[in-house]
From TrEMBL, chain A:
This is Sugar ABC transporter permease. InterPro entries: ABC2_TM (IPR013525), ABC_2_transport (IPR000412). It comes from Sphingomonas taxi. Residues 23-230 form the ABC-2 type transporter transmembrane domain. Signal peptide: none annotated.
Automatic annotation (TrEMBL), chain B:
It comes from Sphingomonas taxi. InterPro entries: Bact_polysacc_biosynth/exp. PANTHER family: FERRIC ENTEROBACTIN TRANSPORT PROTEIN FEPE (PTHR32309:SF13), TYROSINE-PROTEIN KINASE (PTHR32309). This is WcbD. It comes from the Bacteria.
Length: 268, 365
């Protein structure tokens, strides 16, 4: 940025509006290229995660999986697996996103970050809609009770989303530089899944393990979602004083790597 | 150099400079010293046989190790009941609402005071943490005055002790009451059985029908012997000295003996008032009494077991370290607090700067 630039630059509001248009366009394009216009089209966006969650809920119900509490297993699977989908799909979508969109970077107003943000927004929307849709469906069917504190559920959900987004952008940017990220992410995501608090309550773990499990950031978000959902029936363990700085640092790293990659990227 | 570089941007001012200055002011000048009094104690309770099978480890409960009583103590200390108990004479209220405490730290300083808020505030000041490997409970209480911190800690510890005592007395008395009432029942039954047996003996005028029958049979046998010898004598006399004057005498004797024997026989067996009839009734009573005695012995043993069990079941609070009197305020961590605000501010500023720069790269035309 040259010293003279600030005088010439357009107001922030205008730039934001341009970026908003770019993001919406990218989002629509992403939806079309991914789901096409066949059969139910972009509805797959949330039908896909819904089917996943339903399947897992059914499996866990059939297996009467042990989860360390007397909570209804359907509600447990819903809160747990939806959270997993949220933080796991975002990096999955962002890794390698740049390679397939390199041609778009010819447009001056499409920036590297925009591509990631559009994909993340899409994933977030899909997972959220599936979570909300399934919740409403199960509540109407009488399988689960309505959440005790919706605001808390939303807060926990946003926390997981924030973590997922920061992780996704970091991994996405890094994956542009090294293919290893893609190769390592798949095993890693499967390994973290059982540790992410989706299949257990922290309270049910031995206290010695609780301390270590709480180093994993998504656990906190899942716990908050569960507390919001079940109220005093679960004893949630979370520490915002740990997750929030963690997410802040990760976000910083994410933006920093994106800038770094953006400077090196070569549009095709 | 342009003035843009010498003068920090408003974003930097808002996110880094202002918060850090505020934090410095707060931590350096205003924040009240917090003294932490710590106590360590163990809730001793009957040790159950430690099962360390793989299944238990997997089920997650194997490693937790905490006993019911120490869980109860933890739950109690984090309850409204503990607050109400400890604050009965206003000890906590006085300690946390003192005017000398800085407005932001004081309870009721910023928000209107009520019971619910006070409970939240209390949860922030009292921390009870079970150590799972050693099963020691750490109870730490923060207050703005070392003496108050210790007093509150001591109070909470006393209440926990009272709770554990109550639990263990209850557990013991429950088991004992059952055993005791069983023993009392058995005693009563044994006594009535014995009384009925004695009453029957009195009524029937016999101590033991078996022995009495034996004695009588012996008497009958003796009479039989006499009868036989009298008969033999009579036969001899009738054969050799038919005119002997003893013959009528012997005949009377034999008659008398036969009558006596028949009468005695009927007393032993047959007949309503015979000994054999009495023996049947007697045996029923005796069996009752024996059974009652055996039952009594059994319940007495189980009562003794219950006593032993109760002695073993006694849970109590063992103080390892009594509430300490802090001589130095370990909180707030003034430098650390300022530093944390600075670092977080810098992070937020960095993120926003990059984001805004990214936004600015979009332009019309």
């Amino acid at each position: 940025m040259t010293p003279a630039a600030p005088l010439a630059r357009p107001p922030l509001r205008d730039s934001l509006r341009v970026q908003g248009r770019v993001l919406v366009a990218l989002l629509l394009r992403e939806m079309l290229t991914r789901y096409g216009r066949h059969n139910i089209g972009f509805l797959w966006l949330f039908v896909e995660p819904m089917l996943f969650t339903l399947g897992v809920a059914a499996l866990w119900t059939a297996a009467k999986a042990y989860h360390g509490s007397n909570l209804p297993i359907v509600a447990f699977a819903l809160t747990g697996y939806s959270s997993v989908l949220l933080w796991r799909n975002m990096p999955g979508r962002c890794i390698g996103a740049l390679w397939s969109n390199l041609s778009l970077l010819y447009h001056r107003n499409i920036r590297v970050l925009d591509i990631y943000v559009a994909r993340i927004a899409l994933e977030f929307g899909g997972a959220s809609m599936s979570f909300a849709g399934l919740s409403v469906l199960f509540i109407v069917l009488g399988w689960i009770d309505p959440p005790k504190n919706i605001l808390e559920v939303v807060g926990g959900w946003l926390l997981i989303a924030w973590f997922g987004a920061a992780l996704a952008i970091t991994l996405g940017a890094l994956s542009h530089e090294s293919e290893l990220v893609d190769k390592l992410w798949h095993p890693a995501s499967y390994l973290i899944f059982p540790l992410s608090g989706s299949a257990f309550l922290v309270d049910a773990l031995p206290a010695a393990a609780q301390k270590y499990v709480l180093y994993i950031p998504m656990v906190h978000g899942t716990e908050i979602v569960r507390e919001g959902y079940f109220g005093s029936r679960v004893h949630a363990h979370y520490d915002l004083g740990y997750v929030l700085p963690f997410c802040l640092v990760l976000t910083f790293v994410a933006l920093f790597t994106t800038q770094w990659v953006a400077r090196r990227v070569v549009p095709e | 150099m342009s003035s843009t570089f010498t003068r920090p941007s408003p974003l930097f001012l808002a996110l880094v400079v202002v918060p850090t200055v505020l934090a410095t002011l707060y931590f350096a000048l205003f924040a009240s010293d917090v003294f932490v009094s710590e106590a360590r104690f163990v809730v001793r309770s009957p040790s159950k046989a430690a099962v360390t099978s793989l299944g238990q480890v997997l089920s997650g409960s194997g490693l937790s190790g905490a006993t019911e009583e120490s869980n109860a103590v933890v739950e109690y200390l984090e309850s409204r009941g503990a607050l109400a108990d400890a604050d009965r004479d206003g000890l906590l209220t006085r300690a946390y609402t003192a005017g000398s405490v800085f407005l932001f730290d004081r309870f009721g300083g910023l928000l209107p005071a009520n019971r619910e808020r006070f409970f939240d505030y209390y949860l922030g000041k009292v921390e009870v943490e079970p150590d799972t490997t050693t099963q020691v409970l750490h109870l730490s209480v923060s207050a703005f005055d070392p003496v108050a911190a210790r007093a509150i800690n001591e109070r909470l510890l006393e209440r926990s002790e009272a709770l554990v005592n109550r639990l263990s007395t209850r557990a013991r008395s429950d088991a004992l009451t059952v055993a005791e009432s069983d023993a009392r029942d058995a005693q009563e039954r044994a006594r009535t059985a014995a009384v009925r047996l004695a009453a029957y003996r009195n009524r029937a005028g016999i101590i033991d029908p078996e022995k009495e029958a034996e004695a009588r049979l012996q008497g009958i046998a003796k009479l039989d012997d006499e009868l036989v010898s009298a008969r033999t004598q009579l036969q001899q006399m009738e054969a050799f000295t038919p005119a002997a004057p003893q013959i009528p005498y012997l005949r009377t004797q034999i008659d008398g003996l036969q009558k006596e024997i028949a009468q005695r026989r009927s007393g032993v067996a047959g007949g309503r008032n015979s000994l054999s009839a009495a023996a049947a009734r007697y045996q029923v009573l005796q069996l009752d009494s024996e059974l009652a005695a055996k039952q009594l012995a059994a319940t007495l043993i189980s009562l003794q077991d219950a006593h032993a069990e109760a002695r073993r079941k006694r849970a109590y609070v063992e103080r390892i370290a009594p509430p300490s009197l802090p001589d130095y305020p370990i909180r707030p961590r003034r430098l650390g607090g300022i530093l944390a605000v600075l670092v977080l501010g810098l992070l937020a500023w960095g993120i926003l700067t990059i984001l805004l720069a990214g936004v600015r790269e979009h332009r019309e035309g």
